[in-house]
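Form P-L/3: holo structure prediction, ligand fructose -6-phosphate.
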Amino acid sequence: MCGIVGYIGDKKATPILIQGLTRLEYRGYDSAGIAVIENNKIEVKKDKGRVSNLTLLDGIDNLEATIGIAHTRWATHGKPSKENSHPHMDMEGLFAIVHNGIIENYNELKNDLTQKGYKFISQTDTEVIVNLINYYYNQDKNEDELKFLRAVKNACMDLKGSFALEIISNKEPEKMIVVRKDSPLVIGKGNGESYIASDIPAILSYTRDFYFLNDYEFAYLSRNNIKFYDTNLNEIKKETKAIEWDSKGAEKDGYEHFMLKEINEQPKAIRETIGTRLNNSKVSFDELSFTREYLEEINKMYIVACGTAMHAGLVSKNIFEKLCKIPVEVDIASEFRYRDPLINNKTLVIYISQSGETADTIAALKLAKAKGAKTIAITNVIGSSITREADYSIYTHAGPEIAVASTKAYTSQVTMLALIALYFAEILERADTNKINTIKEDILKLPNKAEEVLKDTSEIQEVAKRIYKERDMFFLGRGVDYAVSLEGSLKLKEISYIHSEGYASGELKHGPIALIDIGVTVIATITNKDLVEKSISNIQEVISRGAKIIVVTNQNIENKGFDTIIRIPEISTEISPVLSIIPLQLLSYYISKEKGLDVDKPRNLAKSVTVE
Ligand code: F6R
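OUTPUT (holo model):
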């Protein structure tokens, strides 16, 4: 939520800032702005609307500055408007700031500052921060080289909530300060220049060497140097980490939308996620040094996440319980963190987060850790906040995911969770070895089978053309297919704005069947051969009430009055969601496209939800 970019070096800053914002637009797109220092003076250009509007603003092309900060906004405090757009300046115009996060005590701070004579022109919490910096700067009678930094540090210590900040000042026109707490921010090291952004892909075309800040670490940047400080303003040393992602991952690469590109990247993403973990011997996880004694003692596992990542958890409950015989509860992070869950040192909690920045998931992780549980984070983003909190971090290697609707991250997460379940199962020896070996062999087949699913999408495009005007749809499934129906339904609603519900097929007649009427579309997934008969009889119940049925299946099912049957390759049921979700992702994509919607940036949504 909100994206920030910064540049300091010897190149013209504006194009770099705008390109970075364009790549971060999936994080928020209701207003955008930049601030640069030109001739020792701060120049701000901002407005409501998308980043592309920025390029139309008067005089923006003439800015020659080589230092600047920029922001694309997802409104939290204050409606989308020019006044509320970032960057914000203090009352005297000494500082400019961009902010991603939420300041929880901003009202209190604003009242304090108002009493001291400060005036505000926006409704944002950010304008409070920049005036607080002004206050501390003016209070400080020392004129040394750390005065700017001291003012920022003092202001930050008063803030409650989350923030990633970039600050420039016409008092120090050759300097920039960045700091973060619970909001993402990375610093890319160039040659005599530095790039700052909310995430790695935004600046990956400039550098592969990144600094990652911990909470309350301050980076004081000049053109060819960065110094890092702790909260006592003692200098600290930080090392860069090399990032191996291909910068093409952050480009559309000939596809019309990132979502379609990312759907098509799934075979590669799954292959990379499997990596070398599966070979002829046991599944290997060097990151997890779990002993048999420890695993035998676990009395409960939780899998905690939000949205699509939580749906990946729902799929995996089945494989963990079957192969490891450990009870698993899957929970939504925002619920888990406030429901006082039963946790002790025999509990293992797995957290899943593509971005590694989701506020609720990170808070839920801190809670379990404080209660003595061991915690594993599965994430796609190296150095993300969650990896700094978890006892163990495991990376899916899906590559950058830019479209707001998650696709390749989901299939990589399901694959990774299956690998972890197998790893535990081989240590615990509680499951049939043949079963374990079949799933291992099938995991290796997933990339090629995903390619098969993606080969011909014409039938799905036809279906999309037939049903894109509908107002309601239903997704049905049993077992893992139920988890897939929830994810299929989420994909549809978020990018097509069609109301949809995912239901366990057997549950339909306990209420929701009242909504089934002539012409309503029902999409059923069937991948478990033991449940085929039961699933078909549930489908007959809705057909007899006039519903149009689309079936996605890997079973040899006859078409018994269905509108369409989409066939996918057979695979072990436990991992079938990796394949069965693909037609549903494509269907949502083509429906959204048919409706002429902004597929990659659906309304009201942002890619990473760094606020509660
Ligand atoms: C839906 C979607 C969201 C995310 C959720 C968690 O397509 O992308 O539901 O899955 O916001 O995000 P992460 O995985 O980054 O924690």
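COMMENT: The pocket of fructose -6-phosphate is lined by residues 306-309, 353-355, 358, 361, 405-406, 490, 494, 608-609 (CB under 6 Å).
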